[in-house]
Amino acid sequence: MKRMAVLAAAILILSVGAFAEGTSEPDALTLSGVDSITVRAGTVDVQVRGTNGYDVIVKADLPQSLWSDSGYKIVHERRGSHLNIWVQSDSPFGVTRGGKLRFEVPRDVVVQVQTLSGSISVEDLESESCTLSAVSGLVTVRNTNSRLSLDNVTGSIVLDSTDGSLRVKTVSGSIEARRLALTGNSSFSSVSGSVNVRLDLPLDDFRFDLSTVSGRLIVGDIRAEKGLRMGDGDILIQAHTVSGALLFR
Questions:
Q1: pLDDT at position 97, please?
Q2: Does the pLDDT at position 95 exceed 90?
Q3: pLDDT, greater one: 13 or 244
Q4: Burial 171-209 (b: 16+ CB within 10 A, else e)
Q5: Which of 3, 101, 117, 157 has the smallest count of CB within 10 Å of its CB?
Q6: pLDDT score for 68
Q7: pLDDT for 61
Q8: Domain ranges, ordered by start, for the chain
Q9: Measured distance CA(122)–CA(183) in Å, rounded
Q10: CA 10 to CA 44: how far, in whole Å?
Q11: Which pTM does this prediction carry?
Q12: Each residue of 133-161: pLDDT tens digit?
């Protein structure tokens, strides 16, 4: 009898925990007073755009589950000024057919996004930090000023008209950057993916510490093999690949 009472209490605790996990919204959500957000979206694409507004607005175009008529939901949990958002299936065996989450956020909101095959797109942010991580989805950052930490495995990372300091890492995905205005020490690394960076400042403003095992290595008009250390600028750029090319212009 005592065992049954303990089991019943345990079931009750688990039930309460599951119920308190978050509040679901079918396709839209608006919240104010949010300073930071964390998004876990799996195979769903995520778009984040900074605005001059004060609210975080989430709009969803979520797929139907292959094995459930009720499909997927946005689930959110708020702790003070921090917002957690994730995509949840009503079926434990659900498989997505794509889908998209669109965020409009104040420009200074700290953003963290994680996906598997879903792509990540961030633009028009001016926040203290932005952390993006994918396994195979494309990661794109445009017109953003932040301390960026970007990770991908097989997917590519693309930056355009971006300011700040960077830590960018892939395994086999390429790293492409255009009109990049670095304001702090930054690093780029890949195993077999290429790193191709066009800086928005003169090369003399930087110090370079680059190494590769078998890939090409080019800084401006200078070509090297294996490794290159050059420059006496205030900002250090470190980059390493095994077989991918390192190109800085």
A1: 56
A2: no
A3: 244
A4: bbbbbbbeebebeeebebbbbbbbbbbebeeebeebebe
A5: 3
A6: 47
A7: 83
A8: 21-117, 156-249
A9: 19
A10: 34
A11: 0.86
A12: 999 999 999 999 999 999 999 999 999 99
- Residue whose entry in the numeric block shows the structure tokens 């590519």: 156
Q: In terms of pLDDT, which residue wins out, 9 or 71?
A: 71
How does 9-30 read in b/e, with b if 16+ C-beta sit within 10 Å? eeeeeeeeeeeeebeeeeeebe
Residues linked to residue 39 through DSSP beta bridges, in sequence order = 85, 113
Decide if 248 contacts 218 (C-beta within 8 A). Answer: yes
pLDDT, tens digit, for every residue of 198-214?
999 999 999 999 999 99
Amino acid at 109: V
How many of the other CB atoms lie within 10 Å of CB of 6?
A: 10
- Residues counted in the chain: 249
d(CA 165, CA 163): 7
Q: Write down the residue that tokens 């957690």 correspond to.
A: 84
Is 23's pLDDT higher than 70? no
Long-range Cβ pairs for the range 139-148 (8 Å, 24+)? 144/50, 147/184
Q: Give the type of residue at 89.
A: S
